[in-house]
TrEMBL record:
Keywords: Glycosyltransferase, Transferase. InterPro entries: UDP_glucos_trans, UDP_glycos_trans_CS. This is Glycosyltransferase. Signal peptide: none annotated. It comes from the Eukaryota. SUPFAM superfamilies: UDP-Glycosyltransferase/glycogen phosphorylase. Belongs to the UDP-glycosyltransferase family. The keyword Transferase applies. Its EC number is 2.4.1.-. GO terms for molecular function: UDP-glucosyltransferase activity. Transmembrane segments: none annotated.
Amino acid sequence: MAEADHQLKLVFLPFFSTSHIIPLVDIARIFAIFGVDVTIIATPANAAIFQKSIDRDSARGQPIRTHTLKFPFSEVDLPEGIETFNADTPRDMTYKIHRGLSLLKDQFEQLFQDYQADCIVTDMFFPWSVETAAKMNIPRLIYVGGSRFAHALGHAIEKYEPHAKVESDTDTFVIPGLPDEIRMTLLQVPDSLRTTNEFTYMMKAIKDSERKSFGSLFDSFSVLDGAYLEHYKKVMGTKSWGVGPVSAWANQGEDKAKRGRAKVEEEEGWLKWLNTKTEESVIYVSFGSMNRFPLSHLIEIAHGLESSGHNFLWVVPKKQKGDEGFEFLEEFEKRVKETNRGYVFKGWAPQLLILDHPAIGGVVTHCGWNTVMESVNAGLPMVTWPLFAEQFENEKLLVDVLKIGVAVGCKEWRNWDDLPEEAAVTREEIRKAVALLMGDGEEAKERRRKAKELSQEAKKAIEVGGSSYNSVKEIIEEIRSYKRGKVMDKEA
């Protein structure tokens, strides 16, 4: 794809959460495609999420490897293997994982030195790494999860505090200083912006580290960002590159089928079922790796999907000890199997393959950025059901700016491990949103048209000469130039 530069060495450090690991590893793989020498640092359980992809890339001759280091389980009183933040992580163990991460900091820094990194690329949740890079006199690139739009919106809320002027939790307010008129309610604002808490300080540290960094990386592309590409650079005062859609770029051909799985066979149930459905007749329903709904939510989702009149493929987590609701789900699964209306997929789904299937016509999503980008690449409109993090902001982008989304009606931001027992959305709201998205009305047709247009732009972005392709080339050249400058200074 480009001239190989095996002398340029990049070391990547993903955060210990599946939703952050996957995109940053895909970015690492993209740099290796360009011939850059790449090392990814991870602990064994986290490396297992992506190692098969790295092995395939390495077998193709790409200069990429994983360096694993042991997680300090005994030091933080954790059982072996609990080292990742996701829906299955026991709530009382998340603090211990954070402690374990802090204990690994010295080892991370030593590995940056050992691999003689010319640049480190770290997740936003490692703000300390910007100081490490400064000590080493090398650039640090920060991977920022989510959209430029979402982070620009959060910045505007923090700066102007429009939510402080409303009289009730449900009054809408306009967020100043943005290219578009965006309205929110107090309940939709992340708690770290409503009140000062531990995460408020973490986000401040992340922002400060981004401003000190060589630049920021987003899983995005220029047409998707629109006016927010330059707006974000202006408010942050830093260089910023969109290098997406990274999942489509890094996972082509057999990689799609084998991503995170040994094999995806033709006779698997979900594929056989989808193959019986007509084009764009199925809605795909998934709430990501960080969500585990209480029983009341599952009941409303099931009834809402069943009464929508549309075919659906619904991904649910595998049963864990103490889970409620799996008897209900098993009965529901049996019923929809008999009617051939729906398919319930338990566990980690091969999402890239599913979204690309011609039978899929739309997506119900929590607005996590990985699923948003994968749906955009597949040209699919979305029912938006945000829950936490920057997901309410992503909903505004999909519904109000890009106009490829239908809001299901979720009204309140909650922490990822603190979803309410009472269902936040009713079955009737789900039924209506699915019917609107999958219907034949003019608005539904226009959403589909816009989604397909964006898909074409996403594909162009990663082709030779596309915006994301050019961004990666530019980053490589800037790091190379920085390295040359250091050599010249030494010789002077």
